[in-house]
Amino acid sequence: MIYVTVTEVLLYFCFALLGGTLTFYSLDEEKRPDVRMKKQWLLYATLAAGVLSFAPILYTIILLGQDTGYWQALTGVLFTFQIGKAWMVTLVLVILLAGLIYFNDLERDHILSKLGLILFIGILVTYAKAGHAASLSPTWGFTAHFFHLLAVSLWTGGLITAAWFSQSTERWPNFLRWFTPFSIVCILAALASGFGTMMIDIAKPLDHSLSATAYQYKQGLIMNYGEALIIKHLLLIPLILCAAFNGFYAKHRLRFAKRSPYAFIKWARVESIILFFIFAATAFMGQQKPPHDVAQSILSGETSPLFAALYSGTVKSDTVLHFSMTYMTAIFFLIAVLFLVMTAIVIMKKRSAFIAVVCSVGYLISSYLGVMSGLH
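Request: output the structure for the sequence above.
Response:
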């Protein structure tokens, strides 16, 4: 199970690397940062996407193979399971994209780079088709998951690629001029599609209403899936804070104060570090049982160890969680706000990036403890 989570995190970074680089290569040179991505790195990311996306299938084959035999499990999963058939299409697209990268110089060919971007989007389509949301709702679940993947891959891909692979800062102001509104659109699309995916993933079967989603979200905190989900959502606050600085404040300073872009690239890297934690939480969620029936999960002994350690009450199958603002809850939330303010000050004063990351982690811990201390 752990190796699948690790492979999922690596897969998300491969998606980001491919999405960001191919998007940049599709643009005119003056509109993109001076990114120098070695061809073999892009090729390795493509091939790794095919291999890493096979990890959940391998895990399923190992489980089934213990009873039916591994060869029969392999052929059964690949040719009868939706996840296997989707991966077969993924493999074809990966081979085509790898060939396109290997035999051509995409950095200098806008047409072929756009073709590569289309192939990459096709890989996202097949990955979403094999997802949990698509298995529960073939149309809406797949659509929401796909647009979530697309928005996140293009936005985070552009951010990570520009932050870590820019060779110079000469075109950075031009880059921010279009990337800021592009990021806003991607963030809004990711939030909307992510909410749609969540309504399908965590709600009770056949009931995807807002009230059912809110109830399952609260009850889901008892399980590992819900714990990872709340941590992921709490991390969105410092992420959006960094994104706002990188998108608006930095662009304003570059335009009017003529500051060196090098001073702001490190804050884009801070944003990418926060993204790593979000990717990790997302990958962990993908390998956990969604809270469709929390009562049955409690009877099966699937309560989250972290929740059990922090929850003051006794968890039973009929436990219904409620939240109220207690003295300790207010203190933890106040500390969380102070950490956020400190993060903003550190960023605006252009202090240590390490301190900004530490303050973000402090916010996460204190806000999480605030939520948990208010449950009864």
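Residues 224-257 form the longest helix (34 residues).
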